[in-house]
Amino acid sequence: MLDTAQNRPDLPPEVARRRTFAIISHPDAGKTTLTEKFLLFGGAIQMAGQVRAKGEARRTRSDFMQMEKDRGISVSASAMSFDFGPYRYNLVDTPGHSDFSEDTYRTLTAVDAAVMVIDGAKGVESQTQKLFEVCRLRDLPILTFCNKMDRESRDTFEIIDEIQEMLAIDVTPASWPIGQGRDFVGCYDILRDRLELMDRADRNRVAESIKIDGLDDPKLAEHVPANLIDQLREELEMARELLPALDPQAVLEGHMTPIWFGSAINSFGVKELMDGIGNYGPEPQPQSATPRQIAPDETKVSGFVFKVQANMDPKHRDRVAFVRMASGHFKRGMKLTHVRSKKPMAISNPVLFLASDRELADEAWAGDIIGIPNHGQLRIGDTLTEGEALRVTGIPSFAPELLQTCRAGDPMKAKHLEKALMQFAEEGAAKVFKPAFGSGFIVGVVGALQFEVLASRIELEYGLPVRFEASQFTSARWVAGDKQAVDKFTAANKQHIAHDNDGDVVYLTRLQWDIDRIERDYPDVKLSATKEMM
Ligand code: G4P
Q: Does an H or E element contain 476, and which?
């Protein structure tokens, strides 16, 4: 029997033990270090220090290019699986940079929970707050890890208050730090009445936890200086009065976050957090889809693509589609229906991702992430099923906030450029619009850094120097409505019309005024800043 807070005894045990989550944090809070320790304790790596792909946010352009060279590593770091205790954890990496918000959003559609990592000295920082808001939109359960407690940190109540205030979520302490900075000795595990002591001598080792019988147990004094025991008693009493007790249901509903204190670099508090994700984090959740929702305990296999990574190996031009399994028991070699094209696809070499290795996935259950190498058939938002025409919903594509015209350095290479751009569009790295009038392509991104990254990738992967130039347009909106209305609209606004890589009609402009006018003049046409991927 799993020690779980769930109430779904009907789930197959292999599904019930899966926990699929992402880490959200501000750059430098310790996401990479924590990931490394997860993998270390999960037995996926032998030594800490192997997860080389760092948070994208910290990369300068040259780091980014290096990462491109190390693509194998960055890709294997995109989704990682490991076992710990009775659970199978699937950790999906969120791109860290604010430039990548759309990709991040889509990543969060593939997980059932998020671990929020904050720096104990800094509290809730801007990027954490943004990512938290995205989780909130999806009511994702959130578990919090307050890192770097081995250093001077803020007062524990102050940290908890800040999270409650800034993020409007109840916070319940799962552990309580004892001492501060250099005097930090460890934590009191509130959920299990245990003393967890930090071993400063060996960063990869975890000191044994000491079972104690409440705060009056004389064993406390053997391990903790008297002044810190007094302080701990006082603080815990206050915490009991002022802070809510753990309510597993509220955690699952995303209204409450349990917080663990620790130090990732010292491997401290990490196992407790892992247990916490297992015990209080959600099992694989139902997936919204049309015409009906998909339940994780259905016997038929289904899954959806939330990320595509192209050119992982420049020699082979392969792509890997990252698929989140939504239901069933997938076995290697299975034939699944690619719902968009209605064509069958034999999934003969799916991969599972371990920290430093890709492995063939012989099987996968709801909750798992597998990679499917393909030649471009699989796109973000695609659904795979055993035949039923289900389409997973809720994976949006946002209108880009920055538009530029992209031209090939050599005008004879326009066709090559089109191919390269389409590839990146399918990967979700950029939006590509082909104007109905004029030459060139208009490329839209969410953050300015992406233009540079794209230019470098096109040159590196396609041997094609390109330049990005200011475009006359600044906004893009997808055009929807019945065919007649859309045709009438496009005929009258040809100078502003383009098609995206799926062939859908897009309206480009530089004036909000234009958008308002169209809403007034063409009531049958809807301009939209997001499009559901399908
Ligand atoms: P990120 O992925 O969230 O950006 O953070 P990362 O894990 O890279 O950690 C950022 C910095 O914080 C790293 O130091 C890392 O060693 C340090 N760090 C992580 N966890 C702890 C902790 O528990 N205590 C302390 N004191 N530091 C911690 P760096 O000097 O920037 O990089 P590096 O030279 O150690 O790689």
A: strand 475-480
Q: In the beta sheet, which residues pair with residue 325?
A: 303
Q: What is the β-pairing status of strands 289-290 and 369-374?
A: unpaired
Which residue, judged by its Cα, is nearest atom 19 of ligand 1? 30
pLDDT band at 75 (very low <50, low <70, confident <90, very high): very low
3 has pLDDT over 70 = no
Q: Give the position, in ligand 1's atom list, of the atom nearest the Cα of 25.
A: 3
Mean pLDDT value of segment 123-134: 88
Q: Hey, which of 24, 25, 28 would you mutate to test ligand 1's pocket, going by the most ligand atoms within 8 Å of its Cβ?
A: 28
Could you tell me if 269 and 145 are in contact, meaning their C-beta atoms sit under 8 angstroms apart?
yes
CA–centroid distance, residue 96 to ligand 1 (Å)? 15
The fold of the 287-390 domain, in CATH, is Rossmann fold (3.40.50)
More confident residue, 86 or 360: 86
Atom of ligand 1 nearest to the CA of 262: 23
What is the CATH architecture of 24-278? 3-Layer(aba) Sandwich (3.40)
Q: List the chain domain ranges.
A: 24-278, 287-390, 398-530
pLDDT tens for residues 187-201? 999 999 899 999 887
Report the predicted TM-score, pTM, of the whole model to 2 decimal places: 0.82
Q: Ligand 1 mean position to 28 CA, how many Å?
A: 6
Q: Is 105 a residue whose pLDDT tops 50?
A: yes
∠ CA(239), CA(244), CA(247), 5° rounding? 135
